[in-house]
Amino acid sequence: MIKDIFRKKQIGQILIESESSKNSLNKILTLRDLTFFGIAAIIGAGIFSTIGRASFNGGPAVSLLFVFTAIACVFTALSYAQFASTVPVSGSAYTYAYVSFGELFAWIIGWALILEYAVSNMVVAISWSEYFVSMLQNVFHVHFPRYLAIDHGTAKTAFEQVTNAVAAGTTSSLPSNTFELAKIYEIAPMIGDLKIIFNLPAGIITTLVTALIYIGIKESKNATNILVYIKMGVILLVIVGGVFYVKTDNWVPFAPNGMNGVMLSVASVFFAFIGFDSISTTAEECVDPQRDLPRAMIYCLVICTILYIVISLVLTGMVSYKELGVNDPLAYVFEKLEINWMAGIISVSAVIAITSALLAYQLGQPRIWMVMSRDGLLPKKFSSVHPKYKTPAFATIITGLLVGIPSLFMNMQFFIDLTSVGTFFAFILVCAGILFMDYKGLSKESKFKVPYLNGKYIIGTLFILAAVWVQYSFGFDTLLAEKPLLGVFWSAWLILSILGFKYNFSIIPVLGILTNLYLMSELGWTNWRMFLIWLAIGMVIYISYGHKNSKLNLPKL
Asked: What rounded mean pLDDT belongs to the chain?
């Protein structure tokens, strides 16, 4: 079994299977469509909320953080692009790992991607609900029942906190939002002893988006393109309109909290860029995937980076960075300047932006399941394609249920703790896969290649310089005591330095590995624990079902 779990699929074999599959998909996506899918996934709630918190911590200098983060994403995007041009099927990092590291790693990545796409969409659906209810109230003056737009656990916890605080006479220590949530729980209707509290808008939007994706890729493409045109227009309107209210005095000091303040937001800013990888899940529906997938990944990253940088500069120029620690910074700055009509437009566009992000991620999940099912690692039903709509029908329905039902009843923080680590893990393996392809000579089959820069001496030199700087500035003992997970990062860097010297590793994939591993090590132990539990569940499924049903299963001698 040990030998079997590391068996690999050949690139030629994968291409033949995808082309000869009875369950073929419609090939209609062009370069523009792919680029728009990437923009839809990347520009979601991030530009309407994350950018404010980042500016609050780092001041105007956060614009530089977007540049640094974009460069870090490019390392990973280039690796994805090479794989996408070499293996143009819908499995994304799952298929890439199958070619590079074997079946076990492919399963782990596929299982991690389920976590990334499904759980991320639960967060997006809950976020959409918040913006939607706010839009109804502030723009259309419609008061949606709040007990139908929040999860039961959050409301009940707030009620218990207020009740205990009242009994102890310490209500002044509670934030105002807690009292609002407690009130919602108190006035919610009941059936017997059960309070009727659930997030109806989150469930509805998930159902509608799933239905659209089920009907067809053409309809999903058209909806995505329209939504992206609208939100891009609104963002440009914000930039053009906001420029006239910029006061350069607000940019001084440029980095009020120093680099520490800027780096406080590195993880959240990084997540504002995640989404380019979702493009690779549509490979089998592309007209020319080997040419267009790499281009689309780079184009969407460049476009989104420019928008993020300009928006951050405009926001911090319109008002002081100290005022941007809010959930809706774009609307806030225009309300602050009493341009209420613009604030209303932004509220509506936030709902549109998050809808397009939900659509992009909800589109990717079923296609990964479809490819895993083709390989025998999941039941055959997951690879069934609708005879009329040419979409992975069963997998799409299951994805809708998997996202929609939990988003009705669970809170956002629970899902946030489940995400992140799996995403970084997938990115690391994709970058490592490029090193493997170079070593085995498989890169010769790639129509797009990561630019090769010999890291034989560079990787080790950078390691020594970084280690000396850390020891001199902080001391490794102090640093690792505060953040023990950084030990994994430094150990990996040392190993890559040795292997890079021996095998002449390309520096770009190595920088991708190190960047993602550093950010991964910055996450809390809660994220790691939840991810390890998720992997353990996945391993049970693989051992009990996937291994013996794999199409690569070797006959027992």
From this structure: 85
**How far is 125 from 116, CA to CA, in rounded Å?**
14
- Phi-psi sector, 555: left (phi>0), alpha (psi -120 to 50), beta: beta
Amino acid at the residue 138: N
Using the predicted structure, report yes or no on whether residue 60 has a pLDDT greater than 80: yes
pLDDT band of 63, cuts 50, 70, 90: confident
Can you give the pTM of this predicted structure? 0.82
> In percent, how much of the chain has pLDDT > 70?
92
Residue-wise burial string across 54-75, b where 16 or more C-beta atoms lie within 10 A, e elsewhere: bbbbbbbbbbbbbeebbebbbb
**253 upstream amide cis, omega within 30 of 0:** yes
Give one word for 216, left, alpha or beta, with left for phi > 0 and alpha for psi -120 to 50: left
**What residue has token string 């953040």?**
483
Which residue type is seen at 233?
A: G
CB-CB contact of 246 with 56 (8 Å):
no
Structure tokens at 291: 């040419």
pLDDT at 19: 66
Judge contact between 455 and 501, C-beta under 8 A.
no
| Residue owning tokens 């309109």 | 241
102 with 8: CB under 8 angstroms? yes
d(CA 270, CA 237): 25
Q: Burial, 495: exposed, middle or buried (Cβ in 10 Å; 0-12, 13-18, 19+)? A: exposed
Give the residue-averaged pLDDT of 306-322. Answer: 89
3-state SS of 517-545 is HHHHHHCCHHHHHHHHHHHHHHHHHHHHH
Residue extents of the structural domains in the chain: 4-141+202-431, 152-197
Domain 4-141+202-431 has CATH 1.20.1740.10: yes
Joined together, the tokens standing for residue 480 give: 């690792």
**Is the separation of the CB atoms in 466 and 443 below 8 Å?**
no
Plot region of 24 (φ>0 → left; ψ -120 to 50 → alpha; else → beta):
beta
Confidence of residue 557 (pLDDT cuts 50, 70, 90): very low
pLDDT in tens, 386-407: 888 888 999 999 999 988 998 8
Name the amino acid, one letter, at 497: S
Mean pLDDT of 445-465: 92
Q: Which residue has the tokens 């530089």?
A: 64
Question: Which residues lie below 8 Å from residue 301, measured CB to CB, with a gap of 6+?
Answer: 38, 42, 70, 73, 74, 77, 273, 276
pLDDT band at 31 (very low <50, low <70, confident <90, very high): very high
For range 268-296, the mean pLDDT: 81
**Contact (CB, 8 A) for 399 and 491:** no
